[in-house]
Amino acid sequence: MTTARTETEWSLLDEVPERVVSGCLYDSPGWLRMWETTGIEGRARHGYVSAGGQVLPVYALSSSPFWHGYVTQAGQQQLGSRHVFAGSTYSMYTKRDAFPAALARGAHATAMEWIDAGEADLLIAPNLTDTAAATWVDAVGPPVGRVLLDRTYSSDLSGDFDDHLGRLPRKLRMDVQRRLRRADERGLRIDVVDGPEAHGFVPAALPLVVGTTDEHGWPALYDEDTLHALLRTPGALLVVARVEDRVAGVFFGFRQDAEVTFLCGGVDYSGLTELSTYVAMMYRCTEWAYAGGFRRIEWGRDNYRFKERHGLVGADLWALVYSPDPTPALVEALAGMHRVIAAYVEGSG
């Protein structure tokens, strides 16, 4: 490992340090090292800002399907993707909680240097919770634009699975129990697999995963190589729903400490009503997590109203955008992006 730059508070490294203090899956060394091996984003340059035992990746990108999906949905394609990203838009969180302010200052200084060298146009810090966004702004000042990118959901686990069901409203609980019985009766089998067995399901999983992103003209967010890379992350698992030999649904997940995180997945919509595939997978995964002693499940983005109906807790994910030379057109484009995506997240878009 070499150090590309050292300042009083922070340093810029060319690889992930051996020891990292992480607050969630997405700033853990296992995740960051895995993501470096992927090619789904057009990565021209990258580094890792290190301060206070934590790290923050900086990526100079020429393209990012996930970011492109957001700007396409918002009708702001002129924003492009040739930017420095302080964390990937693929990660559910860049930072979930407060973090050392020196990380933000280091990422900002590095990005401005790369932008000044003509390697990028903007700095984008994506997928920051309210707490993390406040830390960032306190450290480097207000952005030229603040965009609500998405909302992700989680559930804290207490007691056992029966207690969990008991906390649901009576009508919803009875509906869930009926759907679970019906799924069992119709032969839906749900298994948690990992290792070579999980990799063997990737060809069948890919069309289910990419089939969830076409509602607003988004590009395919994953390819087989990226899904295989996800499964090489320490603690990776694949939840597979099957009827006989037909794959009806998949969730890509990760175990870390007392948490399980589900990043992406999909179901075969042709059998969704008959099998209640999504509900069955969600609740069988919850049952599995209770049995395994996990205390938190991160359920990921989108499907907002369903997740709220089932008692999951939402957290807004913000993108802070910085420019050394902001223009009125840029300010308006970012404001327009925020308006469209916020309306969608809140259910009025």
From TrEMBL:
SUPFAM superfamilies named in the record: Acyl-CoA N-acyltransferases (Nat)
InterPro entries: Acyl_CoA_acyltransferase, BioF2-like_GNAT_dom
Record key words, sorted: Transferase
Any one Pfam family match given in the protein's UniProt record, by short name: Acetyltransf_6
Record GO terms (molecular function): transferase activity
Superkingdom: Bacteria
Keyword check for Transferase: yes
Domain BioF2-like acetyltransferase: 170-308
Protein name: Acetyltransferase (GNAT) family protein
Annotated organism of origin: Saccharothrix texasensis
